[in-house]
Specification:
Strand content of chain A: 25-35%
Radius of gyration of chain A: 16 Å
Oligomer: homodimer
Shape of chain A: globular
Number of strands of chain A: 6
């Protein structure tokens, strides 16, 4: 039997585990579990969590299964002028524990994101996914997202 | 001789013209100039501008040429945990007066966006562009953006 997945707002205590999930899910250089656990304790993550919380417009969530954090995502609220001021929501940093992929954790988080977006008054929900993640693309399309756009990135260092 | 393009922060007085540029540039149902001018005066746009300004994290800009607003874009600042708390910037609602497309207004705005992003401490700049806008895709690639992601959208009404 697959344990129930619940999704809740992240707290500061979750940050090392969330950062480890992100490190394990890195698109081009994923870390193994031990390296990711070490990485997750870097103080930069706690500082970044403070900035997310202080913003008021960015919401970090975790998925729990049997008392363990097994997934994470962020939902950001973006006001804009288009469509007579339709608020956009951007889903970012969607990551599931590699040992649990395909078990419904991601779907539970995305259903949560859609419900949360409605509560936050979001009229258009969007996300981008690396072109090499073809499984993720089918996953998002099954959830009802339209793959309508090209996603562009530029690193500024 | 092509007049110089300058880019500056938008003010409340610019909102009807910005909204008209957005309406003329709508991906699936672009308005003609007269309809867009009427649309731009809808009070919902002034209210949305207040939300953008109040957020502190979303910045609306206009491009001017010979004293006339000929383009607009928005830059949104998104804190996150990934990459030890790298701040993301999202470029949205990039629109140029249809009569001036291809004249360098968009490039001036995107060079401004990249400079502004650095000032705002953004480490990763991103945007998405409708798949049917192939000219825009080549434009963004020439500016140095990598077309690395698939962009997904879901309208919530």
């Amino acid at each position: 039997m697959i344990p129930v997945v619940s999704v809740r707002a992240a707290t500061a205590a979750d940050v090392p585990r969330i950062a480890a999930l992100i490190a394990m899910g890195h698109a081009s250089a994923p870390m193994d579990a031990a390296a990711a656990e070490t990485e997750g304790r870097h103080p930069a993550y706690a500082e970044a969590f403070e900035r997310i919380t202080a913003s008021g417009a960015n919401h970090l969530f975790v998925a729990e299964q049997a008392g363990r954090v097994v997934g994470t995502y962020q939902l950001s609220v973006l006001p804009g002028l288009a469509e007579r001021g339709r608020t956009r929501g951007k889903i970012e940093s969607v990551h599931v524990d590699p040992s649990l992929r395909g078990s419904g954790v991601g779907a539970a988080m995305m259903r949560h994101a859609i419900a949360e977006a409605r509560v936050l008054g979001i009229g258009l929900l969007e996300l981008s996914s690396n072109k090499n993640r073809t499984d993720a693309h089918r996953f998002y399309e099954r959830l009802g997202f339209a793959r309508s756009h090209e996603g562009f990135k530029m690193v500024l260092d």
